[in-house]
Fold this protein.
Amino acid sequence: MSKMLSVENLSISFRTDEGVITPVQGVTFSVESGRTLGLVGESGSGKSISTKALMQLLPGSAVLGADSRMTYTDKSGKEIALGHMKHGSKELRRIRGGEIGMIFQEPMASFSPVYTIGNQMMEAIMLHRGLKKREAREYAIEMLNKVGISNAAARVDQYPHELSGGMRQRAMIALTLSAGPALLIADEPTTALDVTIQAQVLDLMRDLQRELGMGMIFITHDLGVIAQIADDVAVMYLGTIVERGPAKEVIRNPQHPYTQGLLDAIPSLDHLHDRLKPVPGDIPSPTARPKGCPFHTRCAQAISGTCDVQEPQETSPLPGRAVRCWLHETKSRSAA
Amino acid sequence: MLRFTLERFAGMVVTMLLVSVMVFLIMEIPPGDYADRYAFRKYSGTGVNVTEADIEAIRRDLGLDKPMLLRYFDWIGGIVLRGDFGQAFAFETSVTKVIGDKVWLTAGILFSTLLLTYLVSIPIGIYAAVRRGSAVDYGLTVFSYLGLALPNFLLALVMLYFANRWFGADIGGLFSDQYRDAPWSLAKAWDMAKHLWLPAVVLAWSAVAYQIQTVRATMSDELNKLSVTAARARGVPEMKLLVKYPARLAINPVVSTIGFDVNRIFSELPIVAVVLGLTELGELLLRAYLDLDMNVAGAILLLLTFAIVFMNFVSDLLLAWLDPRIKLGV
Ligand SMILES: Nc1ncnc2c1ncn2[C@@H]1O[C@H](COP(=O)(O)OP(=O)(O)OP(=O)(O)O)[C@@H](O)[C@H]1O
Ligand SMILES: [Mg+2]
């Protein structure tokens, strides 16, 4: 298995009226082709902007760190440095949609309300598959069928508001996949949907990912969803990845106190009578990032004099795993 | 779309009917009528004693003694069936003759002003929104304030001065001397176009300043929409993307105020016309009012309101075309 995407040391700053803030700092992760990476973290931890950086979709006020590297290997095996492509270049337009597809949280808002579903699908198909109008329409109908939309031949001429929320997200999936991306970024695609529909859409995405052999980055704030869909997981806290590794192992045996807290916060059927234990405390704002380990203000096991002074480096306490935590760094150091 | 068009068209016809009733009533409101006026004009200072009966006779002559309802139907019937706006009392000829050419000239000024306003303000407003915060954007904002602050007639004077210096003396009015009384021809139309740009620029100035800000504001909102980011993430070329997604919705407030713009331009027309030496309807309307020459005033008011109602109809159709949700009733 090969890495299709490798992100190293990604930092993102914004110039704002209150000065420069850096909501993403030193993020490192990778996506293996044909596998799903779950990116999990609380609201504001920087999940969306990290993935938007890959597609150069950040606003003009955003600045990438000088030593940030994002390397993508395209369908033909060519390595491409993301984040530094010329605006309006053909290369960037090919990557956007044709190599990397993106699905957003709000299916209604992701469609333009003034064009039919078919119009927006055909636009993407003609751009990336070089089909003529009529063939593109056929293809759009085929894709709508594939994502389980009944009566696709009629739906293709409908406007987004004529579809229910679940149908709209299915149509959005069809639209994104119709451009034929090798990597799919799904940014909380099910958060806005009802629970039952959430499960259906999740199943659909997993099946399609396997069938098409795509790599996928699945963003969520719910570790429960990660367990269902992801092969690997990266846990993000306040702009850094605090733990990553194979999803099953991380969930079974979390190493970082924050991951443990997130897992404790999942309601479980066996323990319905227990009270939920949300991670205590509030997430600090990116303008007031704590010194040292960003999580120490909420961590029950924080070592004073260490965690609140210096930021821990990434260590590997177990094979295939990576954690940023002083508990492990001191352990591995005393072992050495 | 056909059904929507028919509905709006029916709405337009009903509105025009109501408007014609209102215009007629407005004509009735001023105390006295043209019979009084006529008698006063003709006999004041001559020492002739005018009796009520004399005035009644004049009234009967002019047909002003008939019941109101009948006069309304006479009036509107003549207009709709024969294009006949009745008698222009003060001129002792038909209204059609009096307003004749002025209608076309006024319409020409109105439309060229509208066209110029939109052709300039929409692309610039879009550009300012896309380049938000740049030097160009700030420059345009300054221009907008200038444009809104500068009185029209002052601008007209300044422009007239420079136009005279650069393009020669023959720039005031709507025609060069040799065409003024010539029959309509291609050459005359071209001559008019050469003169039309000056009043159009003067009248469009403040509207351009205003609409640039409107388009810039809505375009900025639209640019932040997720659907625009989503289209960009699908690799739609930027130029096509801007026109197809955000711009299409950003011009909505401009399109919905076309009728309002017609009204505004018409109100601003007289003072600009005086400075630039144009003959148009606005000034005639004022004169007709002072003379209580209600057939002339009524004809001008009716044409203006019809133009506004018609442009509202056009704006409705355009809006529905820009945003299909409107005709689907969402
Ligand atoms: N345009 C911007 N200007 C300034 N700061 C920004 C901008 N966009 C995002 N941020 C900052 O980056 C942080 C991370 O944003 P991001 O949208 O990536 O969070 P997220 O992890 O996706 O959260 P959520 O689960 O709510 O979607 C935010 O807290 C915000 O402070
Ligand atoms: Mg997000």
Remarks:
- The longest strand of chain B covers residues 87-88.
- The radius of gyration of chain B is 24 Å.
- Residues A 14, 16, 21, 23, 41, 43-49, 59, 61, 221, 286 surround adenosine-5'-triphosphate (ligand 1) (CB under 6 Å).
